[in-house]
Each structure stands twice: as structure tokens, then as C-alpha cells.
Amino acid sequence: MIPRVHQQGERTLGLLIYLFGPGTHEEHIDPHLVASFDGLAPDPGRDPRATLKDLQRLLDQPLHAVDEHQRPAKHVWHCSVRAASDDRLLSGEEWADIARRVVAATGIDPDGDDAGCRWAAVRHAHDHIHIIATLIREDGHSPNHHRSGQRAQAACRLIEADYGLHRVEPGDGTAARRSTSAERHKAKRQGKARTSREELRETVRRAVAGAASENEFFDRLASAGLLIRTRVAPSGDLLGYTVALPGDRNGKGEPIWFPGAKLAPDLSLPRIRERLNSGAEDAALGPREDVGASGRSGAISPAEALRRAAAAAWDAIPRLDAGGDGAAAAQIAAAGEVLDALAKTSAAVTRQELREAAGVFERACRSHVRAQHHQARAVRRAARDLIYGGPALGRGEDGAATAMAIDTMIFLVLAAAHWHAERQHAQQAAAAHQAAEHLRTAYRAASTTPMKSLRDRGRRLPGTTLARHAATVRQAVPELAEGLLTESGWPALAATLTDAEASGGDPAALLTRAARRRELDSADSVSDVLVWRLRRLADLPAAAPSLPTPEADTPSAAPRPAEPSARHAPRRPGGHST
């Protein structure tokens, strides 16, 4: 249940006309009162003898009982209370009780106070009510409604529990501003899935991802097609910016401008500068040279950028626990930039899920912990590499490296969820878990082809090679061995151990390093996770090489291990899907 305290107004009758009217799109159905301060207020929605003017006069009567200079400039208090989409249909009596609890909690009409403010609750849709009140008490004093929005939120958390409704995670005031009802109706009328505010928020977020200077940030906004307006001090210093969509105009035909801070708290110019200044030495740099697994030099490739993103995410995970809160908050914010960069550069097969993951995770990037962005330069640079690497094709090395990067990002996002949960950041933790679900879906799409190729190679390995790798697994990770050897991904892991051995690596040492992190506990397929970690640690191509010719003296099929007993059945914890 979501309450929203709107800006105070000065025309009681004007708000009543809207509440009892048809709505901007005929969405108001059967508007009527469900409760009022005394239970006797006239109801223009149900009583043909009552008028809106009657109700306005009753509500404003205390206002006219005090001297004009004592009246507040804006005396109309307005709060809407909306049920969740999956909540049951509440009766009029239940909405009346909810209205009384909200006005009591917010200080508008406290319980047991006979001199509270006058108010009325209007229901014109099945899922919400509007409460209108006059901000003068019966005794002529002003009500104590300070922080009424937060008090309404606290009341609604109790109401949800009492009525068995959908439980909304408590917020901390760091969420992005929601689109207004008018913005949502406008988007619907124009056939758009998102409002202008939401579209601008995503575009500005993507422009920040990995940017190293203000000029680069504004160049990206311009390249994205946004209208940009800046505010400059007499000294010439830039003070702020606003953006607009080219086709989004008001009734006068003028662009509808949004300041960065109205899109999200961390998109104001001062907050963006904190990120940019953390990597100021990168400002003159373009993409780094590609000297990774491909062995080529020149502009960085999408596959190499994806590998570097995986490496940076891997290194960031332990820093959420060991680097202090400011450093951890910076790693999480930078992870959001990587997700935005992945969504922008990914192939069609994963693009939508990555876009959803980035959009959800942006809520996890903000809390009251101030990020020390210089602590996350490596992750921000990974986002920059992804942008400069350009669009990935979604097949071959690009496709396999995408799966590798997404796999690692799942664990970083889950680590962020754990960090937030430990600090009672409920909304941020929930957002991170939701982002992980989108990443799992993207991973399944990205990994299908490369993992099949690796499994095919593994199945064609000689029996002696498979036996040697099985012994390596039992030696390096004895606690995981039985589960790994019975997973469907075992052939892919065996193929990767073969590749690591051929490249001169020590399979046992690499496997021990790959399994060292506790984040394996959240994996559904531990073998899949170890495949990507091994290929990254050993600097192997993410995609499988051509199928080898089986040795003549050994069978080509992988031996089937004995069926495990119930006691040794492979563990399948919830979490990272593959």
C-alpha cells in the first residue's frame, strides 16, 4: 500500500472538482465519500442534494474562523493511498478505516483529539482513495503534520500487516521520483510503454556509465538525441543541467524540461561530478588497447571488454565486505554503470533482460551511505571499456564472453543485495534480488550455445582424460567433487580443464582459486560457474575451440558415474540459475 502526500494547495474547491469529476481520461468511476472527520459530511457523489460547494464550505470553516494573516498560504493537504495491484478488493468500510488511520498517524486528525483538522476521503476507483484536509485545526492552531509523508508510510506498513495486504518494503527517501499520474496517462495516450521521465532517466544513466569528464557526459546526451539546457553562473561555472525529449512538449509547444535531480537523486550535476572526478585521469583516454586473450592489438573488442567487465566484477565482490561502507557503496554504484553499459551494447538475445536488470538495480545504487567513488575506478573503467568496445554480436567469442560477464555480474548483484540487507536497506536489497532474476534470464539466453559447444567437446574427450580431470576435481575441491561430477555441466568443466592444461596452466591450482569464493553457494550449476571462472583465470577464449579428434586408444564417451545415493545427491541451492 503506497501513500503519497502531494504538494499543498490553496483551492479546496478545485481539488474537489477533480476528485468528484470524471478524471482526465474518464478513469474516475462512482466517486463518493468513504469517510470524513465527523462521519456526517455531505457526499456530492451519492447525495443528489449535496454539492461540492457544500463540502468545500464545511471543510474550510475553521479557516475562516481565524484572522486572515494567521491562515496558511496553502491550506489544502492532499494524500492519496493506493493498494498494490495484487491486493484483494477492499470494501468501503475498510477504506474508511484506512483513511482514519492515515490522518491520525500524519497529525491531521490524531486519535482522541477533538480539535483535529477537518478532512474527507474520496474513493473514485477500486484500488485507491484520496484524502483532502484543511490545515487549520478546530482550535485555530496549525496541525503538527511535519514529515507527514514518512508518517503515512509507517502507518501503511502496519495497515498492510493488519489487512493481509502486499507488504511494501520501507523506503529511506533515496528513491527516484515516480512519474506523476498525468505523465503516465500521457504516455498511455501516446502508446508509449514508459513516461518521458523514465526514458530520460535511463538515457542519462547510460550517459554517466564509464564517462570520465563533463564534456564526455554531455556529448553522450547529445548523441542520444536529447535536448540539453545548462545553467551557468556569472563566473562561467556550470551549475546544473536540464534535459528534454525532442517530441515531448507542453500545451504551448515548448519542450518539457527535467533537471537531473528530478530524474534521480544521483543524477544531479554535483552527484555526477563526484563520479567523474574519481576518474579524472581517464578523461583524456579512449579505449584501452586490446592485449587480452585474443592476442591482438588495436581498439578493444567487444569480447575483450566483456572479459574485463567480468574480471572487474569478480574483484569487486570481496570489497563489499572488506573495503568499508563508502567503498562498498561505490562498488555497487559502479556495478550499476556496468549493467547500463551491458544493456546498451548487448546483442538482441539478452538486451531486454539486461535493460530490465539495469533499470531495477538503479534503486540498489542509492542509499544514505555516501559512495567513495575513487574506490571503484576499476569497475567504472570496465563500464567505459564496454561502451568503447561497441555492440557485441551475441555469437562466437562475443556470445561466450557475454555469458561470462553476466554470470559474474549475478554474483556481484547478489553480494550487493546481501550488503544492503545487513544494513536494513530493504528496498535496495529487494531491487538487487529482482535485478539478479533478470540477469539469470539473460544468462540462460547467452549461455545456451557456448555451453553446448563446451559440453560437446567434453563428451568427446578420452576416458583417460576424463578420469584424470575427475581426480583433479577430487583433489582440488573435495567438498564439491561429488556434485560436480554428477552435474550435466561436468563435460563442459572437463573441456575447460583440458584447455587450461594445454595452455600451460595448473588445473588443480586454477580450480582451487576459482572455487575459493563463498558466492558459489548461490549457484544452481556450480560447474557452469567454475567454467567461466577458469576460462577467465587461465586467459582462455570464452568460446570453445574446434572439436578435437578423439584419441584412438580410448573410448570417446564420458563414463557415467554411479548414481549418487540420497546422502550424496548434488546440492541444488536456490539462487543463480543457468
Provide the low-confidence segments as ranges.
289-298, 548-575
Gap from first CA to last CA: 34 Å
Task: Report the major sheet.
Answer: 5 strands, antiparallel
Number of strands: 8
What percent of the residues sit in helical stretches (DSSP H or I)?
40-55%
Put simply, the count of helices is 21
From the spread of the alpha carbons, the general shape counts as elongated
Question: Which structural class is indicated by helix and strand composition?
Answer: alpha+beta
Query: Spatial order of the strands in the main sheet?
Result: 1-3-5-4-2
Strand content range: 5-15%
Residue-averaged pLDDT: 89
* H-E string: EHEHEHEEHHHHEEEHHHHHHHHHHHHHH
Task: Domain count, please report it.
Answer: 3
Rg, nearest Å: 29 Å
Topology of this structure?
Layout: E1 2-5, H1 12-19, E2 32-36, H2 52-64, E3 76-82, H3 92-105, E4 117-125, E5 128-137, H4 148-163, H5 181-189, H6 196-208, H7 214-223, E6 227-232, E7 238-244, E8 258-259, H8 260-263, H9 269-278, H10 302-316, H11 319-322, H12 325-345, H13 348-361, H14 377-389, H15 396-422, H16 426-459, H17 463-476, H18 481-486, H19 490-502, H20 507-514, H21 526-537
Antiparallel strand pairs: 1-3, 2-4, 3-5, 4-5, 6-7, 7-8
Helix pairs in contact: 1-2, 3-4, 6-7, 6-12, 10-12, 10-14, 10-15, 12-13, 12-14, 12-15, 13-16, 15-16, 15-21, 16-19, 17-19, 17-20, 19-21, 20-21
